[in-house]
Each structure stands twice: as C-alpha cells, then as structure tokens.
Amino acid sequence: MTIPHFYMLHSLGYHRFIRELSTFSWLLALIIGLSLTNTCLFAQLPSGFSKNVVQEDYTTPIGMNFSRTGNQFFVWEKKGLLWVSTWNGTSYVRQATPVLDIQEEVGDWNDFGLHSICFDPNYETNGLIYLFYQVDLHYLLYYGTPQYSSTANLYRHATISRVTRYHLQNSGGNLTTDYNSRHVLLGESITTGVPVTYESHAGGTLLFGRDGTLLLATGDGGHHEGVDVGNRSDTFFQESLDYNMMRANENVGAMRSQMVNSMCGKILRLDPATGNGVSSNPFYDPANPRSPQSRVWTLGLRNPYRMVLQDSTGSTTASDGNPGTLLIADVGWYKIEDFHIVDKAGLNCGWPVYEGLEPTISYNGTNVPNLDEPGQPTFESLCVQPTSFIDDPNPALRRFTHSRPALDYSHGPNAITRVPAFNGTTPITRIIGTTGAPAGTSFYGYCAIGGVYYTGNQFPADYKNTYFLTDHSMGWIKNLELHDEGDHKIHEVRDFAPYSFETGIVDMKMNPRDGSIYYVQILGTISRISYGGNQPPVASASSNVTYGPSPLNVQFTGSNSVDPEGLPLTYLWNFGDGTTSTVANPTHVFSNTAVQKFTVSLTVTDNQGQQSIPKVIIISVNNTPPAVQITNPAPGTLYTMSQPTSYTVQANVTDTDLSGLTYEWQVKLQHNNHTHPEPILTGSSPVITVSPVGCSPNETYSYLLSVKVTDNGGLTATQSVTLYPDCNSASSLVTHVTATRQLSAVQVSWINPELLFDEILVAAREGTGFTDVPNGTSYTAVASFTGNGSPIEGGKVVYRGTGTSVTVTNLNPLVQYYFRVYTRVGNTWNGGVEVSAIPNLPPTAPSQIVQTILPNQPFSYTVAAFTDPESQTLAYSAINLPAWLTFNETTRVLSGTATAANTYVFTIVATDPGSLTASTTVTINTGVCTMFTLKTGNWNDPTVWSCNRIPNSTDAVQLNHIVSIPNQITASASKVTFSSGIKLLVGTNAKLKLSQ
Q1: What is the pLDDT of residue 732?
Q2: Which positions fall inside the PKD domain (predicted)?
C-alpha cells in the first residue's frame, strides 16, 4: 500500500504525531485525486469564485510579489533565482532569463534557500529590492579566496541568514540586476548574521512597514523535532560557537526566541538604508545600533514563515515607533498552529515557553537560565501569562508577559480552534462558534501560512479588509474578519476553500491590477483565485503514443479541455515541426531520419478571447525510452541514527544511445503524511546525504530517493527506492542532562531519546557517582532523598516514569550529590548519563545601611559585597529605587543628587545563579544638615560653619571639622553657634578620640 504524501518545506513542518491510518490515507488520496479534476476545482470555492493556473514549470518556487501597479509580478525560486512576468494586455509573459541569480551564495538545502524578496516603497524610481536567504557556508568562508569554488558547497553545517539589497535595471529590453550594487544590510560577516544551528526554522518574510522601516521575520534556528535547549549533539551548535556565529549565552536552542540580544525567533525592524536598528525600537541601544537588541521589534516566535501588514495601520513616521499591524502565521510544533496580531512594540509571542495559548509542556520545566539577564533567571520565569488584554505601557517591559495569539488551531484529526479570553484575571480559552467566541467552525491543520489582507474590489464587499489564512499541509483557505471589539480580535472565521483544495501553498499575494489573489504552490505552479467575469479555460492534451519509428502516426485528444463558464472553445495545436492544427482531436505524422524530439503543445481559447496555459506532450521518433534501476543504495537500506550518512548513488541504465543521457536525482524526506524535497542533483553518480531522523515514538520517517533519466530524444525513465531509519542504531541515552541547584534540592532535567523506550529511572547518591546499572523493574521511586526510595549502589531511586525532570528534595547543603539518568528499553537498562551538583544556599547580605546626606549635593556610596557560601557570582539589583538615585549593578555604587528633604527606603538584592536571593535595606535621610568647616585648625580656634540652609529644630547635626591635636588626647566641644545666634549645647565634655 502506498501512503500519499503532501509536499512542504521542513521549516514549515509540523513534526507531529502519526495519523497514517490506512483508511484515512486512502480516503485522503481519493479527495486529493478528485481535487485535481477541473470541475471539482471550480466547485470547491464559494459561488462565483474560480481558480486557474497562471504559470507552470518553476523549480521549487517559494514566494512572489507584485509591482505597485500589478503590471509585473516576480517569482523567486528556493535555489536563488528571481523571475519576472510582465502584463501584455491579455496575460503575463515571463521573461526568458532570470532577473537575478545568486545560486552561488544561497544555501539551497533542506528547508533553506532564498525565502523572501520585497521591493522598496519607491521601487518604481529607485529600483531597489531586498532579499532574505541562508548563506552557503562554503561561500561564507571562502568567497574571494583561492579556496573558493563556484561549484562547491558546504551544506549541513552551521550557517547564517542574511539580508541583502540590490538595484534592478533595464538592459537590452530585459530587467536585470546590477550586481555591483550589492549591499549587505544584515549578516555582512560570518559573525553578524542570524545564526542557524540545524536544518530548519530560519523564517521568514521581508516587508516594509507603513513608516518605511524594513521588517524581517526570523525563526528560532534550532532543532525542529525534540526539545532543543542547547548542546544538542545532532545540531550544529558547536560549529556556530566555533565560528562565532552566536554567543555562548545563545547556546540554548529554541530558547533563543526569548532572548532580547539574539536575532533568532524575532521580528526585526531595520533601517533599509543601513540595516541598523531603528531608534524607536523597544530595546534600542544608541551606542550599538547594529546589536540584536537594537533591531528587535517582537520576540517569542518559532518559525514565522509568512506575515503581512494590515492595510491602513501604523504611522508614516519611523520615529513614532508604529510601522503598522503585523498579521503573523507562526508554524507550530507538536500540537498547535498560531496566528498572531502584533500591533505594538516589544510584544512576546511566547515560544517556546508557550505553544499557542497555553504553556509548552516539554519546554516548561527545563529550567534553562537566561544568562543575559541579571541573576540568570529561567526563561519560563521571564514570560508569564497575562491577566488582561491591556499591554504594559512600557514597550521594554511587554516581553515579560505572554502576548497570546489571536487564534490557534489544533493538529488533526480532532479539530479545535480557539481564541483567548479571561475569567476575571485568569486567562482562559474559547472555542470558535461557542458563546463569547467568534462565529465559525473549528478546523485543524499542521502548517500555518500567512496569506493576504484583502483590500481589493473584485471580491464581494464582505471580503474587503479581511484576512485569508491557509495551511500548507491540509490545503484549506480560511477567511478571517478582524475587529477591535470585545475581548478578542476576530469577529468571524469563514470557510473559503475546503481541505485539500491546494496543498503546498507557500505564499499568497493580491494582484493590485485586478484584485484577484495569486498563490505559489511549491511544486512549481502559480495559480489565481478570482471572482466573476470570464475565466480562462483549462487545456487537456493527450496522445495514443509518444514514441516509435518514423513515420510515426499519432492521434491527439484535446476535447477533454474545459471552460469554467461552459463557453465554446477553439483549439490550436503546435506540432513542433512548423505545422499546426485547429482540430480538437487531430492526427499527425512525425518523420525524421534520425532520433528526433518534437514538443507538441495545445492552447485553447474561449469565445471571449481568454486563453489557457499551453499543455505540452513530447513525441520522439526513431526512439525507445531508456530503462533505469537504482543499484546504490539498495531498496530498503537502513541508515544509521548516530550521524548523517552519505551515499554515492548509482543506477544501471539501458538505452539505444547512452551518450546523450541526462540525470536528475532527488531526495525527499517522508515524514508522516508529507514530504520535504531536497534540491535536484545532476550527473550519473552524485553524492547524497541523509540526516539521522526517525525512530521517534508515534511518528514515521523514511527517505525517498528517485532518479529521472532522459535520453537525447526526450524520452524518460524514472525509478525510486526508499531508505529507512535503523532504529537499532539509535541511542537510548537521554541527552541534555542538567542539574539546577535549589535550596536544599536539585532539579535534574533531560531530553528523552527519540527512539521508543519504556521508562526513565533517576538515581541519586551522596559523595560519589554510579558505576552499576539497574536490574529489573521492582524499584520504588521517591523524590525526597530522605524518603523510602529503593536503594541502588549506595544511593536511592528518586524517579521512575517517562517525563523529563525531577526535583530531588531534602538534600544537605554544601554536599556534592550525583544523579544518573537511566533508560529502559524492554528488559534492558542502559548505562545512563550522570551529572552532579551541590544544593544551593542563599547569599548573605550585609547589615542594613543608613546614610544621611545633604539635599542638592552629589552623593555616592558603594554597597558592600554580599557573600555566597559557594562563592558563586552574584547579580545585584535595586528595588523601589528613588527616581533621583541610580544603582550600578556591576560596581554596586549608588549615586545621585537629592533635591528635597525626605527619607527614602529601598532594597538591594543579590541573586545567585540558582535564583536564591538575599537583600538588605537602605535608608537615606536627605533632611540632615551636615555641617562642614571652612578651614582646619585647633579645636578651640573660632571657626565658621555652614550647611547652606537654616536647620530645623529637629535636625540631627553632623560635625565635620579637621583638628590637629596630639594622639590619645581627649578634647571637648561645648557649643556650636549658628548664624541665627542660637546656641546648641552638645553636651559637657563630649569626647572625640582621634587617631594620628
């Protein structure tokens, strides 16, 4: 039985639980098959709407854009080519040569490539375009050096994403690129791009805000399958660190999305002239405008592959900090797809602390510290659920609250579509179609693709100023009516195109020329959805034979062509030999003395002048098709799960003339019910590489290797073989084991192995580690170390289950504990992975601080260092600091100038790496009249004193006078005379003991 597969990019992948039940699969195949018939395509859309293919034969197109007038549209291919088509009055005519070719530079592997192109708002006058893509590491390292080769690449390595600007120009009647105009705005060096540490999740979309700033959506750059919190051995994190593509603090996998000083998992807002951050960005640092934090506009995204700007929103002035409202489809993980409405600066969309509206179970509890933040708090603690729909008025503080999506929807087969709501201050969810929620019917999918905010006039009025959303895997299109009323931002969710209408959509745009919607299908077609009017017919061409000896008599059939409105058709056959026919089903004889290929095309036209796209048939005379059999790798080959595997592919080919053969090899990763196509390779025996994916519970993986051989007469042969993961080679060890120190406790966290396992056991021991392995399954686990957990090698069993963390409590301070995490598969325990830690103790604070100072005089005071029992580095902060005072968290210096008499009380806090704290209270009295002398001298010499104001009767008076008297001599002060003539007795024989 053959399982049908959808086509989609890996960065768009849903990485979900299996649902390939045979009945469901064949039913889905039937639906897909029916959807490909012309009549069903017309019927699937609402009444009055129709769909037709506009162009074909692109190679993995993944995006498109229109010029401002719609007289040109541009399509870019993943490998790094940009094409243009120009309106000639009746149809778009594609330029024969590409406008731009940067294939040498683009890293076209797995999900990477040329992801987005946008046009300058003044493109018609300045010709500027902006590109977002991943760079081939070979190009990044060696371009401009003797080691560089234009035909070489370094795929499956760490790399960066880059934004580049070019100038387009007209040359000889064609639109071309001035390659000398190249200017890199982001990623100008190997250390300044957006780091990519695995094979997916780079983002993204480039577009202009209404204020003329350039907005870029980036992905988290981490592993797409299991939990990635850094140090994951099957990623390229070490290369990223070695090449300084990312800082050591960024080695936290998907958690980079939550870091202000990382460009991963963000919406970046750039100055299109320089690539710098914009001064009105929420975290802008004027001393470093190119830093990640200066460029960040929004954080907490996973893979925001497509986003659009809501029309008529935002300011036209960049300094206002309001580029407009962004509508973002963020591709989800295991359970949920997200739709976000980002209407202000500094919002945190939540990933990976949240997936959709609720916490992400597998990432919560990992307790990964954010090393960029004071006190190194965990990522989970820095982003909490909101208590209302009101955002913090301070843009820089919004990141500490989850900005929940406007809508999320589940993965199948159960359809659940939700919006956010509140019960008092408690965040809740509502399912659409229920009370208090938008109207609509729940749906499911696996890969959200942001579509179009429709502002045209061709569609009925109900669709104007609404949003179209699609799902790459399930092929539906939904229409969302947005609003700002009530407690959610969506008024209604309407069905537009049903499941399987068109799988593989990667981009959608509105044509400003006629108001229709165009979309890109990743297998190579550009299609249009339009309303009313006369639609183009669809040609259908077939023949009874395609090869044979000359003269070859061929019967063609074109009468299966259809017109959406049922209008009569005329036919034009071009036989490729200089002759034509206008008969619906003609017969033609092809003759030649040698092997000859004839390209036959059929174009049909309705009686109102609308033409179809030509359909092509290859006829080859004096020829027979080749035959091909792949010999390496053999069918059913098992690839190892321990590392990537390379194969030098080979095939046996038979043909009447082997000299003119061409080869097209392609690898597709098959994951559940979709595939991830790799670039096509040429040559008779290229090298392919497959990654060690598979063996995850409840998921299926394999690689499909196919070859297409074409002879010099245009006839082809194809064959494919399937490679499967060798799950026996997969490690059963847990990974990313960490020990987080807590007060009299240690939290042990890990990532479970990808292969199917039975249980995890954690053992704890004081003083030394473990060498034995468990035996059997009769262990009792108790998380308290003083509890009755089963003994094991001098320690105790503290955990059994299938989770990813345990907090071991009742541990003694300042004692080293060892924790080993074992995995059982069947009856066999592995050797486990061990970590150690000492339970944490809080820092100790110095005594309370009391200072008395004079108003309007500079004040500076260094707070004494706190002590830590484990000598850990402490992070300092101040709470309730008065506005006139600053606290340097590095030097612990308080400084400032008070302007009025008052008493100020605030707190200095020290936090250790385990988030334990100590604090001391600081009291500053600014009402004290501090006296000082104008000269030094003997105590009894007449001296003038001043405190710059008349003291209050309740003032404490501090005497500051330098005297010169012998050592150990007692002196007395009897009175102090103020300028007002009032005498204050200090006390008889007040004693001052002075040192030398």
Answers
A1: 84
A2: 537-603
d(CA 183, CA 165): 5
* Nearest-angstrom CA–CA distance, 585 and 124: 47
- Nearest to residue 196, comparing CAs of 233, 221, 164, 163? 221
Place of tokens 């050797």: 831
Q: What are phi and psi of 625, to 5 degrees?
A: -65, 150
- Which DSSP string do the residues of 362-407 spell out, in sequence order? TTTT---B-TTSTT--BTGGGSB--SSSPPPSSGGGGGGBB---SE
Q: How many whole angstroms separate alpha carbon 490 and alpha carbon 996?
A: 79
Stated as kind and residue range, the H or E segment containing 44 is helix 38-44
Q: Cis omega (within 30 of 0) on the bond before 413? A: yes
Asked if the bond preceding 272 is cis, omega within 30° of 0, the reply is no
Say if residues 142 and 153 touch (Cβ distance below 8 Å). Answer: no
CA distance 5 to 706: 15
Q: Which two tokens stand for residue 605?
A: 């036209």
Comparing CA positions, the residue from 447, 359, 363 lying closest to residue 411 is 447
Which pLDDT score, from 0 to 100, does residue 969 have? 53
Q: Give the distance between the most distant pair of CA atoms in the chain.
A: 135
Euclidean distance between CA atoms 986 and 972, whole angstroms: 10
Per-residue confidence (pLDDT) for residue 40, from 0 to 100: 43
91: nearest Cα among 526, 560, 532:
526
Report residue 805 CA to chain centroid gap.
26
Q: Which amino acid is at 41?
A: L
In whole angstroms, give the CA distance from residue 463 to residue 377. Answer: 46
Closest CA to 437 of 411, 462, 416: 416
For 187-250, give the DSSP string: -SSTTSSEEE-SSS--EEEEEE-TTS-EEEEE---S-SSS---S--TTSSHHHHHHTTSS-GGG
Alpha-carbon span 886 to 144, nearest angstrom = 50
> What pLDDT does 678 receive?
87
**Residue 125: its H or E element:** helix 123-126
In angstroms, the CA 592 to CA 547 distance is: 12
Pick the closest to residue 137 from 246, 12, 239, 231 (CA basis).
Answer: 239
Nearest CA among 92, 129, 135 for reference residue 113 = 135
Task: State the residue for tokens 């039913």.
Answer: 27
Length of the chain: 996
pLDDT given for residue 41 in this prediction: 44
Angle at 101 between CA 618 and CA 521, to 5 degrees: 55
Question: Which contacts qualify for 28-33: CB closer than 8 Å, 24 or more apart?
Answer: 28/4, 28/500, 28/673, 29/4, 31/499, 31/500, 32/4, 32/500, 32/503
Give the Cα separation of 259 and 266 in Å (integer): 9
* pTM across the whole model: 0.76
Q: Which residue segments constitute the domains of the chain, with CATH numbers given? A: 7-531 (2.120.10.30), 542-621 (2.60.40.10), 625-728 (2.60.40.10), 731-837 (2.60.40.10), 849-925 (2.60.40.10)
Running DSSP on this structure, what letter comes out for residue 257?
G
Provide the pLDDT for residue 674: 67
3-state SS class at 663:
strand
* DSSP conformation letters of 941-985: S---EE-SSPPPTT--EE--------TT--B---EEE-TTS-EEE
Low-confidence ranges of the chain (pLDDT < 50): 1-42, 928, 930-940, 942-962, 974-996
Q: Which amino acid is at 87?
A: W
Exposure string over 34-62, b if 16+ CB within 10 A, otherwise e: ebeebeebbebbeeebbbbebbeebebbb
Q: Position 48: which residue type? A: G
Which residue in this structure is represented by tokens 């490998």?
Answer: 79
The dihedral sign for the CA sequence 199, 203, 204, 208: negative
Q: Number of C-alpha atoms within 13 angstroms, CB side, residue 653?
A: 27
* 507, 511, 515, 520: CA torsion to nearest 10: -30
- Give burial (CB, 10 Å; 0-12/13-18/19+) of 612: buried
